[in-house]
Write a structure and sequence with these properties.
The complex is a heterotrimer of chains A (171), B (100) and C (322).
Chain A: H1 3-24, H2 28-48, H3 52-77, H4 92-110, H5 124-130, H6 132-142, H7 145-166
Helix pairs in contact in A: 1-2, 2-3
Chain B: H1 4-24, H2 28-52, H3 57-86
Helix pairs in contact in B: 1-2, 2-3
Chain C: H1 2-34, H2 50-59, H3 71-88, H4 106-127, H5 131-162, H6 167-173, H7 184-197, H8 209-212, H9 222-247, H10 264-285, H11 291-321
Helix pairs in contact in C: 1-2, 1-9, 1-10, 2-9, 3-4, 3-9, 4-5, 5-7, 5-11, 7-9, 7-11, 9-10
Classes of the chains: A mainly alpha (171), B mainly alpha (100), C mainly alpha (322).
Chain lengths: 171, 100, 322
């Protein structure tokens, strides 16, 4: 195996193991911690795919905002007794079956596909010469301007919704 | 060079793990985290496609997926806290106030 | 080339760790003189060897572990903080043409690592299994989430002026005049958010000694406590360096007369230590904020103000550059 393949194999193995840890740990704080490590590995995977900006965003938004929010809620609700109760629902063998079947099914399909599509203009060299941030910025504010505006509206709605839901009483 | 299929296979496996977590856990917070796991697995495949097809669309989609994930986490956790005030539990099988 | 890079990295980290030990001496001296005291005087000339004595003492202290603490997380928490703070140093341009890693996403890299560093305090508070630590951790997580947004937004104005997120490009863009002249509002927001990010007075609610004993660090002793201490001072250095690079022109200095021969790194260090001195000055001057005031300040004043700053900067740039 070549060097990039070894690197990918390490990252892929770690991501798989870590995501298994996330869904199986009894203590939610441990789950959050494993998820943090997994996000760092995914960011490294993005770096190997030449997406620096997304790697930074992955850590800033996912690790720095979303996951801290999870941790904050876990701590706020103080789920200490969590550790003594059973972690899985009664139908968990069924979920294992669904997961395994889904994995086998999708892996056997996507493992064989070959993607035939016209190549775009953003080659590795083109992106590197301009920088990942600038390239993304240009595409975002030209071809994807409408989705960008819609995303901002979505965030506004989320802010209002979160405040309304979490407020104790609306005066 | 790493073949594109490897990334897609990784993405499929992580997605399946997310589905397993979503269906089996009792803790609502871990269920939310399983959703984030699934979104992340999709992001991996999108970035991989974006790189191999030399297009920016995949990365743009990831950008929007992260936005939606942030909104979803905020709203989901707000609902969780609002619910916790009425019934202090985060176990999905104990959240059965609407049962007839 | 790689070997030289490696050796330079080691030197930077070594000097940096020494700095962390001595900046604490600097702080005690500065605070002492501001309060009409002398500060440490006993060990060495004017107490110069005090940091070494302190670190030896901390190394040999008993390592106490509270009962029912979450062992792995308790051990891990201080390490996360130190690693995040020291890694941020990699992208800071120290003198012309040198930064350990010249990344295109320099500012984002520092923001990302500072958000990882926040975990150290939150997890320490949770793992200690003590009420004071827990309250400190909760306060810190809310505080850091809020102020990180304001800090990131205040740096967007700088990125817009320089046209790049690369810290070296930002320094080069300030060869004529410093960005603090164009971005005074952003600079003010950045300084205050950096105070909140590093949990310093007047925003030191996470370790407020008169309310929470020592906040998140209550249960830590010996070398683990020293690691938190290092993380705090390393974080202060990184924030000061980021402020110096983004608003005070980095290693740019006056270019005439005898000043032209001064090595550029001197200007950089002068600015950084000026910023660090400001930290101490504020600590000696200001009382602590109340928690609800802190949250109001972050969400209702800083974030709208920094957003407005971005809009104004963008408008001015478009209208002037045509």
């Amino acid at each position: 195996m070549s060097m990039p393949q070894v690197f990918f194999a390490y990252l892929a193995g770690m991501i798989t193991v870590l995501s298994l840890l996330v869904v199986t740990r009894k203590n939610p704080v441990h789950s959050v911690l494993w998820m943090l490590v997994m996000f760092l590995h995914i960011a490294a995977l993005y770096l190997s795919l030449n997406a620096e900006f997304l790697a930074a965003i992955q850590i800033i938004v996912y690790a720095g905002a979303i996951l801290v929010l999870f941790l904050f809620v876990i701590m706020l609700l103080n789920l200490r007794k969590e550790e003594t109760e059973k972690r899985f629902q009664n139908q968990w063998p069924f979920s294992v079956g669904v997961g395994v079947v889904l994995a086998i099914f999708s892996v056997s399909i996507v493992g064989k596909i070959t993607v035939i599509a016209p190549l775009g203009q953003y080659t590795v060299e083109a992106v590197r010469s301009e920088g990942s941030v600038m390239t993304i910025g240009k595409v975002l504010y030209t071809d994807f301007l409408l989705p960008f505006e819609i995303a901002s509206l979505l965030l506004l709605v989320a802010i209002v919704g979160a405040v309304v839901l979490a407020k104790r009483r609306l005066e | 060079m790493v073949p594109l299929n490897w990334y897609i296979v990784l993405s499929a496996i992580v997605f399946s793990i997310g589905v397993f977590g979503f269906l089996s856990r009792r803790n609502l917070i871990i269920i939310f985290m399983s959703i984030e796991l699934m979104l992340n697995s999709v992001n991996i495949s999108l970035v991989a496609f974006s790189h191999y097809l030399q297009s920016m669309r995949g990365q743009m989609l990831v950008f929007f997926v992260i936005t939606v994930a942030a909104a979803e986490a905020a709203i989901g956790l707000a609902i969780l806290i609002a619910f916790y005030r009425n019934k202090p539990t985060v176990k999905v099988d104990e959240i059965n106030l609407l049962k007839g | 080339m790689d070997l030289i890079q490696f050796i330079m990295t080691l030197i930077v980290i070594g000097v940096f760790l020494l700095h962390v030990a001595f900046v604490q001496y600097f702080e005690r001296k500065a605070l002492g003189h501001m309060q009409s005291r002398l500060g440490p005087m006993r060990v060495g000339w004017h107490g110069l060897l005090q940091p070494i004595a302190d670190s030896v003492k901390l190394l040999f202290k008993e390592d106490i572990m509270p009962a029912n603490a979450d062992k792995p997380i308790f051990y891990l928490a201080p390490i996360i903080g130190v690693v995040a703070a020291i890694t941020s140093l990699a992208v800071i341009p120290i003198w012309p043409g040198f930064s350990i890693a010249n990344l295109n996403i320099g500012i984002l890299f520092i923001l990302a690592l500072s958000s990882v560093g926040a975990y150290s305090i939150v997890l320490a508070g949770w793992a200690s299994n003590s009420k004071y630590s827990f309250l400190g951790g909760l306060r810190s997580s809310a505080q850091v989430i809020s102020y990180e947004i304001a800090m990131g937004l205040s740096l967007v104005g700088v990125m817009m002026l320089a046209g790049s997120a690369n810290l070296t490009d930002i320094v080069n863009a300030q060869s004529k005049s410093w960005f603090i002249l164009y971005q005074p509002v952003a600079c003010l927001i950045f300084v205050l958010s950096a105070l909140a990010e590093t949990n310093r007075v007047p925003f030191d609610l996470t370790e407020a000694e008169s309310e929470l004993v020592a906040g998140y660090a209550t249960e830590y002793s010996g070398f683990r406590w020293a690691l938190f201490f290092m993380a705090e001072y390393a974080g202060m250095f990184v924030m000061s360096a980021l402020g110096a690079v983004c608003f005070l022109g980095g290693w740019n200095g006056p270019d005439f007369g005898i000043f032209a021969n001064v090595p550029k790194i001197i200007w950089f260090l002068l600015k950084v230590y000026g910023c660090i001195f400001t930290y101490f000055w504020l600590r000696a001057t200001l009382p602590r904020y109340r928690y609800d005031q802190l949250m109001n300040l972050g969400w209702k004043i800083f974030i709208p103000l920094s957003l407005a700053n971005i809009v104004v900067t963008g408008l001015v740039r478009v209208l002037w550059k045509g």
